[in-house]
Structures are given as structure tokens and as C-alpha cells.
Design a protein that fits this description.
This protein is of the alpha/beta class and 271 residues long. The chain has two domains: 91 residues, Elongation Factor Tu (Ef-tu), domain 3; 155 residues, Nucleotide-binding domain of ferredoxin-NADP reductase (FNR) module (Rossmann fold, 3-Layer(aba) Sandwich), CATH 3.40.50. It is 21% helix and 27% strand. It contains nine helices and eleven strands. It has a six-stranded antiparallel sheet with strand order 4-3-6-1-2-5. Strand 10, helix 9 and strand 11 form a beta-alpha-beta unit. Helix 7 packs parallel to helix 9. It is globular, with a radius of gyration of 20 Å.
Length: 271
């Protein structure tokens, strides 16, 4: 019997990166963010998502779910924005991570919330609810966003004022970004809305679109134009469905990586 026949079978490569947690920030009892080291060979387009998880308990299979990467393609570390579900199979454990812990990340990013899936336009609307803000943290820090669109509008709808994570970032801090700070200061508008507490722009973003309030507030023509407006949607199924129908009523057509269009949504999160 040859030595070759006695050699051990090749070890199958893991489909996951094992990454060190660099920091964790708890916004409130419902939301947190964390950053991990970026593998040197990991490439992605701003707005894509990837599988994030933890090893299975007692040696079981890993527990995973899709997370938008809340960092632009050029970032040295990778950021993620998550809800806390006390009995959730993943987030009940993930919310307890601390710096120095290890999380799993898939090696194949994908998604449709990318500039490649949109045709050209003048104005880019990034409409999200809850943690659906995450991909906008990526897209809004991509230089190509500002070269392709004259105006970028980040709309974020939440239940309570305390849920407006990254409010300071989009209002002020992004203006100090060394790569896109000047462009963001000149071209980016942040438009938060709150549904369950008193706020200067109350209610769901879909209601403010239908009433025309969002356009009046931003001093824009009422409605969306297929000639000038491009839209990305991420968040609750109800918001995505309702906003998609509104966009279609204005003549906008859904796009994809294969066939770019006027608006895109992330079906991986819709179910």
C-alpha cells in the first residue's frame, strides 16, 4: 500500500470566515451595532449583504442570518446593524458578543441594493425602516453615489426617537468623512420619521409620500419621476410592498443586477 493511499483526505474549506469582533455599541434595548476585522481577500459592492452567525451550541450547525454590510466597499473593518430579539435563535446570543469574541461571516456577498442595479438619474432615495438603514450606511459612503446622483436622500422610519440610530452620523459626522465628506455635505439630505412619539416629521414614510408631505418638506416636486428619481428600499415587508406599489403608480420600474431599473429592493429580506 502506497503512502498516498494512507494519507488523510483533504480538509474541506470552511464556507465561513471566523472574524474577531473589534467593538460593540448598544443603541438601546432593541438595537446594537458591531464591527469585525475584514479579511484581506473579501470583496463586496456597497449595499450588498452577507451571512453572519455564530457557531452552533453543543457542536451543532452554525446559526446564521442575512445582514447588510453597513460599511462602504473601501472600509478596513466591517460594520453590522442588528435588532435584539430576546428569544431569537441568533440575536439572543449575538447581542451578548463583546470585543475579542469571534463571529462567522459567509464568503459570498450578494444583493440588489447596489448602484449597478439602477439606471442613471438625478436623485437617489434610500428609504429604510428600522435596521433597514444598514445598507444606506454603505451606499452613502461610496464616492460613486455622489458622482452618479446630484442629490441623495436618506429616509429612515422608526417607532421611537431612541430608535434613530446613526442620526448624528447622517446629520453631522458624515460631513467629516475624509473621502466623501464634502460631497455628502452638499448633496445628502437626512429625513427621519417617527411613528409612535412626537417628532417634527411624524408618521410612516409611506403616509408622508402619499400626503405629499415629504416632497413639501424637501422642497421637491410632488411625486416620483421616472426621468429623475431612483429608489432603493430596505426594511419591513409592509413598507417595501406599499412603497413599491407607489413607485409603480408613478411609472418607475423595478430593477435587478441583470436588468437595471428605476428602483430596487432586497428580496432576501422580504421572505
Amino acid at each position: 500500500m502506497s503512502d498516498a493511499s494512507l494519507s488523510a483526505p483533504p480538509v474541506k474549506a470552511s464556507p465561513f470566515h471566523e472574524l474577531e469582533v473589534l467593538w460593540v455599541r448598544h443603541w438601546n434595548d432593541q438595537l446594537f451595532s458591531f464591527g469585525v476585522k475584514r479579511p484581506e481577500d473579501f470583496r463586496f459592492r456597497s449595499g450588498e449583504f452577507v451571512m453572519i452567525g455564530l457557531p452552533g451550541e453543543d457542536g451543532g450547525k452554525p446559526t446564521l442570518r442575512a445582514y447588510s454590510i453597513a460599511s462602504p466597499f473601501w472600509a478596513e473593518a466591517l460594520e453590522f446593524f442588528s435588532i435584539k430579539v430576546q428569544d431569537g435563535p441568533l440575536t439572543s446570543r449575538l447581542q451578548k458578543i463583546v470585543a475579542g469574541d469571534t463571529v462567522l461571516m459567509g464568503k459570498k456577498p450578494t444583493g440588489t441594493l447596489v448602484l449597478d442595479a439602477l439606471t442613471g438619474g438625478e436623485r437617489l432615495w434610500l428609504i429604510g425602516t428600522g435596521t433597514g438603514l444598514a445598507p444606506w450606511l454603505s451606499v452613502a459612503r461610496d464616492p460613486e453615489t455622489y458622482s452618479r446622483f446630484k442629490q441623495v436622500i436618506v429616509c429612515h422610519t422608526v417607532r421611537n426617537v431612541a430608535d434613530l440610530a446613526y442620526r448624528d452620523f447622517f446629520s453631522h459626522e458624515i460631513h467629516d468623512d475624509p473621502l466623501i465628506g464634502d460631497e455628502a455635505k452638499a448633496q445628502l439630505t437626512y429625513y427621519p420619521t417617527v411613528t409612535r412619539e412626537r417628532f417634527e416629521t411624524p408618521g410612516r414614510i409611506t403616509d408622508r409620500i402619499k400626503s405629499g408631505d415629504v416632497f413639501a418638506d424637501l422642497q421637491l416636486p410632488i411625486g416620483f419621476s421616472p426621468n429623475s428619481d431612483r429608489v432603493m428600499l430596505c426594511g419591513s415587508m409592509a413598507m417595501i410592498k406599499e412603497t413599491g406599489e407607489l413607485l409603480e403608480s408613478y411609472g418607475l420600474k423595478e430593477g435587478s443586477n441583470a436588468e437595471p431599473g428605476d428602483y430596487v429592493l432586497e428580496r432576501a429580506f422580504v421572505g
